Amino acid sequence: MKKYILSTSLLMSALVLSACGSDEAATDGEGGAEGVQEMTIKFSHVVAENTPKHQGALAMKEYIETESDGAIEVEIYPNSSLFGDQDEYQNLASNNVQFIAPDLTKFVGNNPQFNVPALPFMFDNDEEAIAFWDGEKGQEILGSLESDGVLGLSMWPNGGKHITNNERPIDSPDDFQGLKFRTQGGQVLEAIYSAMGAGSESIPFGELYTALDQGVVEGQENTFSNIESKKFDEVQDYMTIMNHTRVDYAVFTNTEFWESMNDETKEIVQAGLDEGTAVAREEATSLNEEALELIRDRGLVEIIELTPEQIEEFRTALEPIYDEFEDEIGADVYEAAREAAGQ
Fold it and tell me: Which among 160, 152, 101 has a CA at the least distance from the CA of 129?
């Protein structure tokens, strides 16, 4: 009888130890280092490698892969190599890609408050734009797409936009008359060009060089880093330094993916995003300055630098835009943007 009880006890102990061992193995198999889930994350964007956005994505990748001991792999797809402007949002919503960093004005059809970067002469520099998007109203706008399964996480600046065209030097609103420009799209940008007697067309960024080369549009507006990295000066004759509107990106993720991560995994991914944000913000100003010098050195375009009086002429011409869109965008958004800009 004692022998039977001893055998039973040994059997039960073995079962308990076996169960504990199975649990530990399952955790290691699912989680990798220290409970971190093994996964592959795809990050798609539409610009070139020598841009603030790509540098931020690289910093994010390096941090996440290092801190997860390789349990998480981050694949970056620049230059519209995975998805372009026209289909990246749908693929994010479907979780075919886990991060994108589009121009914020791409979302004006979902929420007109994403027109903020297009408000003429609202922000003088990256710091003012960052202050808005990091603030309460900016965070509210970034979080407004959750019904689509999309969550905005962090704003990455690219800088003020400048005008290029292949018809004539532009130094006054009248010089826009009769020309057609590629824009990122949206109600405010359309109104800006209409107010100056010009047309506008939304063309995917990856197709813009060809559109300029073939004369589909006469000009475009962009940051120095985007103009230089895509060699738009090869197919344009004039560039006006204006800083009239901005290109600002934000990193968006799929909510299902974001909520599927356990605490250990999300902590690393969030810290990686923070690292990428810091790098993208640091690089924005320096890369734009370097890009302007490269454009000057290439000497392919005539560069027009506006006087304060000429800039004021543009400000005056575009001031009615604010009244036109106040109800749609919101007086509270205007107020928050002006506060961030120190106005």
Answer: 160
CB atoms under 10 Å from CB of 109, counted, come to 12
Nearest in space to 44 (alpha carbons), one of 107, 2, 86, 1: 86
Find tokens 């039960």 and name the residue: 12
Region class of 111: left (phi > 0), else alpha (psi between -120 and 50), else beta: beta
CB 236 within 8 A of CB 208: no
Integer angstrom CA distances of residue 121 from 108, 162, 281, 333: 19, 12, 20, 15
Query: Which whole-number Å values give the CA distances from 295 to 221, 280, 285, in the listed order?
Result: 15, 21, 16
Nearest CA-CA partner of 166 in 300, 315, 313, 8: 300
Helix (H, G, I), strand (E, B) or coil at 193: helix
- Per residue in 195-232, pLDDT tens? 999 999 999 998 999 999 999 999 999 999 999 999 99
DSSP notation for 65-100: HHHTTTSEEEEEE-TTSS--TTTHHHHHHTTSSSEE
DSSP state of 160: E
Beta bridge mates, 200: 181
Give the side-chain half-sphere CA count within 13 A for 156: 30
How much is the pTM?
A: 0.86
CA-CA distances (angstroms) from residue 240 to 24, 68, 166? 63, 46, 12
Residue entry with tokens 């006054």:
172
